[in-house]
Amino acid sequence: MKLVDSHCHLDDEQFDADREETIARARAAGVEMMMAIGTGGGPPDLEAAVRLAERYRFIHATVGVHPHDAAKATEETFARLAELARHPKVQAIGEIGLDYHYDFSPRDVQRAVFERQLALAAEAGKPVVIHTREAWEDTLEVLRAQWRGGGIMHCFTGTEQHAREALDLGFHLAFGGVLTFPKAEETRQAARITPADRLLVETDCPYLAPVPKRGKRNEPAFLVETVRRLAEVRGVTPETIAEQTYVNFQQLCLRVWAGNGKLDNFQ
Ligand SMILES: [Zn+2]
Ligand SMILES: [Zn+2]
């Protein structure tokens, strides 16, 4: 199996002691590509993922300000993000969005920073990686008003209705460890109705390890557990899921790199 982990926080300090080994285990498990999420500890450092992507051919990067860190963003942050968006290994802007569960940054600030980054992504012609928690309606409202490009609803844990709304907006849905949790039947139903060409998988490591690793530190190698469960849910083989999600990732995130000229999707 040839897999892509479309969302991992490999810069996290939980990997400081064994990052090299973690990446080697991922590759040995068939995780051939990884998209490192660059939000890190928040501004002023915006290059958490770029540093990894520059070291490893098979690691791609995002840049962006997480809603938790929205209050740390300044004019300098946006200027630097616009520059980094042109980096050849930066494939998307993210994770950006709204998080009303923790409210680490005031909601109006989260929204302004989210909107500003959507404008930046449109300008750069890059897809976005969306983080939304307890903020579904506001997230969709912002996207409907402002976004015509593609992107990823990361760690999708919504209902079938939420899935349909995101799909209608042109988004891919990325399923992670939650899909394997016993109580996550709604998420599995969303995974059943997602068209094959809009499906992605992710770990969001070091968080949300799938069953049977639940509760442990998550890592890209554990993606195979989620892929197995997703295959069961959709009634296909794990190899089919691997192939579909690999191609989808390439088409969505590596289109500039692949030179297939799909940029007319953007505003
Ligand atoms: Zn997230
Ligand atoms: Zn994340």
Topology, please?
Elements: E1 3-8, H1 19-28, E2 31-36, H2 48-55, E3 59-63, H3 75-84, E4 90-99, H4 107-124, E5 128-133, H5 136-146, E6 151-153, H6 160-168, E7 171-175, H7 185-193, E8 199-201, H8 223-234, H9 238-253, H10 255-258
Parallel strand pairs: 1-2, 2-3, 3-4, 4-5, 5-6, 6-7, 7-8
Helix pairs in contact: 6-7, 8-9
The structure holds zinc ion (2 copies).
What would your notes on this structure say?
With 267 residues, this protein is of the alpha/beta class. The protein contains ten helices and eight strands. 47% of the residues are buried. The C terminus is likely disordered. The structure holds zinc ion (2 copies). The site of one zinc ion has 5 residues, from loops.
Portion in beta strands? 15-25%
Kindly report how far apart the N and C termini lie.
36 Å
Largest sheet, order of strands side by side?
1-2-3-4-5-6-7-8
Total number of strands: 8
Sequence stretches where pLDDT stays below 50 over 5 or more residues: 256-267
Class by SSE composition: alpha/beta
- Percent range for helical residues? 40-55%
Order of helices and strands: EHEHEHEHEHEHEHEHHH
User: How big is the Rg?
Assistant: 17 Å
Coarse shape: globular
Mean pLDDT: 94
Q: Please report the number of helical segments.
A: 10
Major sheet size, sense and barrel closure: 8 strands, parallel
Ligands bound to this protein structure: zinc ion
